[in-house]
Amino acid sequence: MRLPRPEILLTPNEISHVDAAAIASGLIGSMLMRCAGEAVAASALRHYPAARRFPVFCGPGNNGGDGYVAATALVRCGADVRVFALGDPDRLSGDARIARESWAGPVESLEAYMPHAGDVVIDALFGAGLARDVPDIVRLVIDKVAETGAPVLAVDLPSGIDGATGKIRGAAFRADRSVTFVERKPGHVLLPGRSHCGTVEVFDIGIPRRIVLAEAGKFRVNGPALFQAFRRALSAEDHKYRRGHLTVFSGPAISTGAARLSAGAALKAGAGLVTLASPSDALAANGAHLTAVMLAPIDTLADVENWLIDQRRNSFVLGPGFASRDKARSYALAIARNGRRLVLDADGISAFADNANALQSAFAGSSGHLVITPHEGEFTRLFPEIAKSEEGKVEKALAAARAIGGIVVYKGADTVIASPDGHAAVEEKAPATLATAGSGDVLAGIIGANLSNGMPAFEAACAGVHQHGQAAGRSGEGLTAEDLVSHVLPA
């Protein structure tokens, strides 16, 4: 069976290289621009047949060139079009100049734009390559369009969105639709850019896929195509240990729920055996709520070392509701010394605050044995210097992964999974209902189950994040973490 291809995300630099390589291969740049601009016109006519007028905002680069082609195509189809340019259109060069010269109508300054009833704005001011704040005049036009509520069709990305990071550069159009080319860009899936793009259409403008693959980096959209090949097939010869034994550490008697959520989720996600390692004072509290999850007393580091003697206990989750940072640190280091796989979450992450080097040293040489799952606050505590940088979320996650030599699941509505080798994926389909107490504990358990089943760490994390979001979708509105557990399925 042929597996689906992972969806590539092309950064602005990469799409520039794709364009250059396509032209070097013999394709004509102006023809590629014509294909792009006419795709924009086709989308405008298809989705806005009742538009009374199409104001086309053209910028000073190739994105503006796409706009001139779109305007020409729309007029050819009988539409009422007005073109408004940022800067002097006579200073355009290359393919954009050819596109400008194809437009036979007048070109007005962007400042001259006045909204009319029935306008559908085509935003071709800036594309994915924007890396500075938009000029004041563009801010004013963005505000003017927003006040009228006119629909916006963005060319490539809404102007004001940084194509590499999804950040807003001063101000940005909020588009109803975006038309992009070849592949989507990071700004389409990372927040806040994603919420400004509306429905995104991707058009093939004739660049061969071999060129795209040659120039693409290691950033992908998360989904089954990334991890399906690593799923462990069920077998009639399986037994519970062959499917993996996951140990989840519980906190003290007053904070046992988080670990039970992790353990329950792990069992639903396909771990063959899950044991809750509980302090003695919490055994009664945990035992009253457990059935299929096993229970074992673990009070000291010596108990952990004894537990690790059994090689079948191959994977661990440490941190949910754990409370004691000193214990968490010592337990994590013992797991590392014994060459086991660890998902470090919550209090387990905070146990290494400002000391990511200790994690890197502990897990050095054991590639794929560590996954950490920080939210924004935990990420900042563990990686204060990285968190302060002006880089985007993907770049921060990759820097953190290199700093610890493990997989980083940088949580949020646009969770990024990053590996020290430069691979990264972003989850775009997790519903907002996951913003509820205990949700992260469930995620840690799912990833732990995937590790116990033998998935490589990066794929285990990608699968876990996807399973988590899919479970939330099945749960519907009003979900609690307990509901979430009940809807978890194996990868």
Summarize the structure.
Helix content is 41%, strand content 15%. With 491 residues, the protein is of the alpha/beta class.
Structure description:
Strands 8-17-16-15-14-13-12-9-10-11 form a 10-stranded mixed sheet, sandwiched between helices. The protein has a 7-stranded parallel sheet with strand order 3-2-1-4-5-6-7, with helices on one face. About 40% of the residues lie in helices and about 15% in strands. It folds into 2 domains: about 10-215, Rossmann fold; about 225-485, 3-Layer(aba) Sandwich (UDP-N-acetylmuramoyl-L-alanine:D-glutamate ligase). It has helices at about 10-25, 30-45, 60-75, 95-100, 135-150, 185-190, 195, 210-215, 225, 255-270, 285, 300-305, 325-335, 345-350, 355-360, 375-380, 385-390, 395-405, 440-450, 455-475, 480-485; strands spanning about 55-60, 80-85, 105-110, 120-125, 150-155, 175-180, 200-205, 220, 245-250, 275-280, 295, 315-320, 340-345, 370, 405-410, 415-420, 425. With about 500 residues, it is of the alpha/beta class. It contains 21 helices and 17 strands. The longest helix is centred in the N-terminal third of the chain and has 19 residues, at about 30-45. A hairpin with a 5-residue loop joins strand 16 and strand 17 (about 425).
Distance between the termini: 17 Å
Can you name the CATH architecture of the largest domain?
A: 3-Layer(aba) Sandwich
> CATH superfamily of the largest domain, please?
Ribokinase
Question: What's the Cα radius of gyration?
Answer: 26 Å
Regarding CATH, which class of the largest domain? Alpha Beta
Classification by helices and strands: alpha/beta
Helix count, DSSP H or I runs of 4 or more residues: 21
Taken together, the total number of domains comes to 2
Integer average pLDDT: 95
Q: What name does the CATH topology of the largest domain carry?
A: UDP-N-acetylmuramoyl-L-alanine:D-glutamate ligase
Helix content: 40-55%
SS elements, strand count: 17
- In the predicted model, the low-confidence regions spanning at least 5 consecutive residues are none
* Largest sheet strand order: 8-17-16-15-14-13-12-9-10-11
Biggest sheet architecture: 10 strands, mixed
Strand content: 5-15%
In one word, what is the shape? elongated
Organism: Rhizobium rhizophilum
EC number: 4.2.1.136, 5.1.99.6
Binding site for (6S)-NADPHX: 62-66, 127-133, 156, 258, 321, 375, 441
Domain YjeF C-terminal: 223-491
